[in-house]
Request: fold
Amino acid sequence: MAETKYIFVTGGVASSLGKGIISSSIGKLLQARGYNVTIQKFDPYINIDPGTLNPYEHGECYVTVDGHEADLDLGHYERFLGIQTTKANNITTGRIYKSVIDKERRGDYLGKTIQIIPHITDEIKRNVKLLGNKYKFDFVITEIGGTVGDIESLPYLESIRQLKWELGRNALCVHLTYVPFLAAAKELKTKPTQHSVKELQSVGIQPDILVLRSEHDLNANLRKKVALFCNVDEKAVVQSVDMPTIYEVPLRMYEQELDKTILTKMGLPAEGKPNLDSWKKFLELRYSAVEEVKIALVGKYVELQDAYKSILESLSQAATYNHRKLKIEYVNSEYLTDQNVDEKLSHVDGVMICPGFGQRGIEGKFVAAKYTRTHNKPTFGICLGMQCMAIEFARNVLGYADANSREMDEKTPHNVIDIMEEQKSVTNMGGTMRLGAYECVLDQQSKTFEAYHKTHIQERHRHRYEFNNLYKAEYEKAGMKCVGINPESDLVEIIEIPGLKWYIGTQFHPEYSSTVLNPHPLFLSFIKAAISK
Ligand code: GLN
Reply:
């Protein structure tokens, strides 16, 4: 395609309506028509990236292959589209300002007064167009975080206004709003949508398409009314009703011809159909599953839906491909003890020991690791989860009762998990972990190799501590093998107890690279072991 087309996705009325899912679904439909699509997210907060935010603030922190700590919506983009995103796909207000201020200090602005308009808005626009200009995508979908009407969103909206003016038919705005159902009146209410469109119009943006999120079906009359009040074509008002799975959303958008509407509005041919065959097959498989696989998630953020987002999605994809319905049991590691562990874990098919930072809830992870090791229950430990498996093994098998990670106990005499050499000099916390994709070579005699069917893999990391190689021989002698090694640094990336059914810990985060059509081999193999009797 000669010119890149830009689609902006804004949200109104309330947050958490699923802009990420709508952006991903639009991306999916266009991709399934053969276009080269990417999605980026702008987050209107001042942090440079979400890496320093705790999960209570921001849910999971996603990591891209090039080592950027990113918003969890990038996980949706990758899972839906099967693409790899990079640092250029997630921009925050903090990064925009930092870049402008750095330029000012360098003297790039030649004596000018630096202002929100044009300098900040130009920097925003540069970051939107970068993906089109540099990487030559056919479509760049830009999701604006937050809700229209927030003070923080204004520079982004002004940039969209300017881009729409500059780019004409090559830019389009999709606005996602909410249509509440008032139970007492038994009525769906469109007024909040009208207000939020007015808010957009007041900053000079006329949305081209409205996606109405609702818990109930919206009839044609209601959509007609919204179209009339908001200056949007009737055909361009679509509904997004709650679905049993988010992966159903692209199909519901397709049914309403959202892809056709977009293409027509942007002056592109709209005949033909997207090829969604494999996507539909995945959904058929998901709905045909009858039996459950029960997995316990042992972590300290169990009350937070978004804290382990990618792990949950990876497990659910792997369950589908194993013809099972995923049933998650959340186990708060802060309250897990030797006394109650049997009650919490004996009935589940497999246990996931979650990643994390800091001391809180750590003892419960050791309890879980010990229980599943001694009861031969399939267990998957990720990052801190893997480190806990190693520490528990050192305490209860190698006989070092005081074994620990330096993260939890700086003075531990048995530092089986130690701080990485390059981390010792780190003073700034932001963006300084071992981040992004690194190579790993697998031992061909391992279950891990059986899962991957190859010796060289690349997986994404986010950690400061590592398995201490001084103890490697002792571990291996006692039955815990180091089956994945970074060829350059010799860091242990995977541990496994071959004598058990499935007891594997990874220093990396495989959950970041599991997608709907390409589920991750380790998750597939874990679920397979969990259901095999
Ligand atoms: N806190 C551990 C480390 O920094 C593990 C990090 C994680 O689980 N992502 O090494």
Remarks:
- DSSP finds 18 helices and 22 strands in the chain.
